[in-house]
Structure formats: C-alpha cells, structure tokens
Design brief:
Length: 265
C-alpha cells in the first residue's frame, strides 16, 4: 500500500500497459482515474477492479480532442481536490504509413509527432499547478526504447518518443523546486494486443533474438517500474529515462547473429 490515499490519472488505460498500470497503482492503494475514449470499456474495467476492493474511477479523454487533456485533469481535481500521480501512457503510430525518411509523408509525420507530444505536454501542463499547490507529485511518461535507438521504420514514432525523453528531463528540471518529479519508462517489445496486431510472428521471433532475456516484457513488468516512480521509494529520483527492454541494444551489435549461429549448431 505504498500509494495509499494518492490520486492518480492513467491515460489510454483500458488495455495493455495502461490497464496494467491502473491495476498496479490501484492495488497499491491509489485512487486511480482511468482516462479513456471508450467509456463503456473503462467502466467495465473499473468495476472489475472495484469488485476486488480497489478504488478506480473513470474520466473522458480522447487524444484527438486536445481540449480533453485539460478537462480531464480539471474534472479529477474537482472531484478529489488533489492530483499526486500522472501516467502519460498514450502513444500512437500507423506502421503502414509511418515508414522511413524516404517514404513517410510529411503530414503523417507531423500528425504522429504532434499527437504523441501533445498528450504529454498538455496533460502535464494542466496537472503541474495542482501538484505544486498540494506539495508535489510524480509524472511518469511512457516512452519507448525506440526513442533511444534508431530503427529502419516508424520515423515519426521514434522522433516523438525521443522528444518525450527530453521533455521528461525538462519537466524534472523546471519543476523540481515544486517537489514534482518526472521520469520516463521505456518499454521494449511488450506482450500487448498492439504488438500482436501490428507485428508479424516472423518479425517478433527475429526481434527476440536481440533481447538477452529472450522474451517479451509483460505489461505488468512495465507497470512495476511505473509504480516505483510513483511511490516515495523514488522520492529522490527525477529526470531518469529507465530502459525496461530486457537488455535490448545493450550487447554487441552482432549479439542476435551470434545467438542464431549457436542455435544452428
């Protein structure tokens, strides 16, 4: 119960990493608002958690309606009188259009960068004054390992996540005197519906050869890092870009090839 009595908002929270974060924070005692576009699904998820003794509520947020970033935060503050934790989990990309520098249309590039950055910038900007007035808080941005290591595609997504990593450090620096911490969690390949829908089994198998731990992360493992940053266990930790990718990109660049060669012997 490290988060007993804390008020948290988790965006894009009805499935995958967002849902796992909601579950983890709620089970550690937080009052968690599931920010979502599909309110019916959010209400169903909230009921399931409340039936097991958690305190989970819902609030409307649609990433394509930028005014809802502010209205979401204000609604939670009106209801609870405080905001202690903000998990900026939303992020999007269209793998069929978000390609490489040669083949990605400029409008698609800007659309993806804009919506991913706005979801962090505008929501944080709305929450920070309430956190400061209450003595502090913790902002956790869900970025991506793709924001650290260039890929052969998804140029817009990678750009947006790299910018979020830098924005994390800026928020941490500029809000430290208000006792507001800001950190980022960078998942690698995670076993979510989005991965199964967008990445072929062949690509997933290829990618796993480059992960020393040899498997995908579970959403719950990403949520564990989020819960740490949300808690007082991380009270002196801010501006950190935490790679939670099973060691992807850490070994020699030929690691995957070496593993493949050994498996053939």
């Amino acid at each position: 119960m490290r988060l007993d009595g804390k008020v948290a908002i988790v965006t894009a929270s009805t499935r995958g990493i967002g849902l796992a974060c909601t579950q983890r924070l709620a089970r550690e005692g937080a009052i968690v608002y599931m920010a979502a576009r599909n309110m019916e699904r959010a209400e169903n998820r909230a009921k399931e958690l409340n039936d097991e003794g958690c305190n989970v509520k819902t609030v409307y947020n649609d990433a394509t309606e930028k005014e809802t970033y502010t209205s979401m935060v204000e609604e939670v503050f009106k209801n609870e009188g405080r905001i202690d934790i903000l998990v900026n989990n939303f992020g999007t990309s269209n793998p069929q259009k978000d390609l490489d520098i040669k083949n990605t249309e400029y409008d698609e590039y800007i659309r993806t960068v804009d919506i991913n950055l706005a979801s962090v910038f505008m929501t944080s900007q709305a929450a920070i004054p309430h956190m400061a007035a209450n003595g502090g808080g913790s902002i956790i941005n869900i970025s991506s390992i793709g924001g650290l290591r260039p890929d052969i595609s998804q140029i817009a997504y990678g750009t947006s996540k790299a910018a979020i990593n830098y924005l994390t450090k800026l928020i941490a620096t500029q809000c430290a005197r208000d006792n507001i911490r800001c950190n980022a969690v960078l998942p690698g390949m995670t076993a979510t519906e989005a991965v199964s829908n967008n990445l072929t089994p062949e690509f997933q198998e290829f990618f796993l050869k480059h992960i020393p731990i040899k498997r995908m992360a579970t959403p719950e493992e990403i949520a564990g890092a989020v819960a740490y940053f949300a808690s007082d266990d991380a009270a002196y930790t801010t501006g950190q870009i935490m790679d939670v990718s099973g060691g992807f990109g850490m070994p020699t660049p030929i690691f995957g090839d070496m593993i493949a060669m050994k498996s053939k012997r």
